[in-house]
Amino acid sequence: MEPIFPDRLTLAHLPTPIERLERLSDYLEGPDLFIKRDDQTGLALGGNKARKLEFLCAGALAQNCDHIITCGSTQSNHCRQTAAAAAHLGLGCSLVLSGDRPEILGGNTLVDQMLGADLYWTGRRSAEDVMQEIGKSLNSKGHKPYLIPMGGSNPLGAVGYVWAMKELADQLMGQDLNPDLIVFASSSGGTQAGVVLGKKLYHVPGQILGISNDQPAEILEHQVAVLTAETAALLGLNHMNLADEVKVDDSYLGKGYGIVSELEREAVHLLARLEGILLDPVYTGKAMGGVIQQIRQGRWQRGQQILFWHTGGTPALFAYGDDLL
Ligand SMILES: *Cc1c(COP(=O)(O)O)cnc(C)c1O
Question: Which residue of 39, 49, 71, 291 sits with most ligand 1 atoms within 8 Å of its CB, as the best mutation to test the pocket?
Fold first, then answer.
């Protein structure tokens, strides 16, 4: 069945390249490692949210909205890229960030401000409540706000990664690659839902694995499975049950979301020093740390191919200096 894609804006730099990680592969003496550079999607320093925003922002424009409201953690990459998309399109942008305003606005929050977004802090309230309140206030002033959920992970956002899998399928064919594993950081689930659905549609080889950044595997797997089904329905593909294809590994959570341990530190340093590639401390550092650990445990061997999907997040490096050095 052919999917029927909703409207899409061109916001990201696509296709992102796939590169071979030759020195890292040699160092680990295991499988051949490759990296898909979605840290280079543009939209104010790159990341996976750019692909989701191509569809989400098209949705906002179709509804004649003039303001985008979304939410995330303090160092949210999603919020930063949403602010960039809004600026580019001439829309207002309100970001609801969790917790209290930090003393120094660095990393993503520096960029958020530079892009002209209005920043709100939840304190002890739920992000949902604060977003609703901002929405009401904008409405009363004659604006038309468009609400994007955390991480842009609704069916329309997830479509961005279905679209990405078409791009990936072409590249794998063109570069004669046949990955045994496609692995990436998974958090609000939109990326994984799109990847799982796109794998099926475009016959992409390899096992798909999301490495959890904050949630237990069972909970995230369920969330991704539901979102996969909803995304299929949005594309006009009914009766697709891909729940069994959704695999999440939560072995690398350590002390929790955004807390840097030796696992992330080593991965960030190895990629920087062996490949000249920057990972981030929260998402891709953990995911790559997990891959490195699996290789050392002998789960993947020489002759196999692993594709690591770099989902971005590098601006957070500038807010985590003390934890990384
Ligand atoms: C948001 C994000 C993820 C997780 O993507 P989801 O679609 O929310 O699962 C992974 N890596 C980075 C850098 C992100 O910003």
Answer: 49
Whole-model pTM? 0.98
Please tell me the distance between residue 121's alpha carbon and the centre of ligand 1 in angstroms: 21
Residue 70 — very low, low, confident or very high, per pLDDT cuts 50/70/90?
very high
CB distance 70 to 149 below 8 Å? yes
Residue 126 vs residues 94, 179, 245: alpha-carbon distances, Å: 15, 41, 32
Query: Active-site residue numbers?
Result: 76
CA distances from 169 to 125, 152, 166, 248, 263 (A): 43, 23, 5, 22, 31
State residue 240's pLDDT score.
Answer: 85
Residue nearest to atom 8 of ligand 1 (CA): 188
- Prior bond to 15 cis, omega within 30? yes
> Alpha helices of the chain — where are they, by DSSP H?
22-28, 49-62, 77-89, 108-114, 127-140, 155-174, 190-202, 217-234, 262-275, 284-296, 321-324
Residue 150 CA: nearest ligand 1 atom is 8
Query: What does the alpha-carbon distance between residue 2 and residue 126 come to, in Å, rounded to a whole number?
Result: 39
What pLDDT was estimated at residue 30?
97
- Of the candidates 113, 67, 74, the residue with the CA atom closest to the CA atom of residue 96: 74
Best mutation site among 16, 77, 222 for ligand 1, i.e. most ligand atoms within 8 A of its Cβ? 77
Q: Please say if the pLDDT value at position 1 is more than 80.
A: no
Q: Are 248 and 217 in contact (CB under 8 A)?
A: yes
Q: Ligand 1 centre and the CA of 102: distance in Å?
A: 22
Q: Which element (helix H / strand E) includes 76?
A: none
| Residues with C-beta less than 6 Å from any ligand 1 atom | 47-48, 77-78, 151, 153, 185-192, 280, 283-284, 311-313
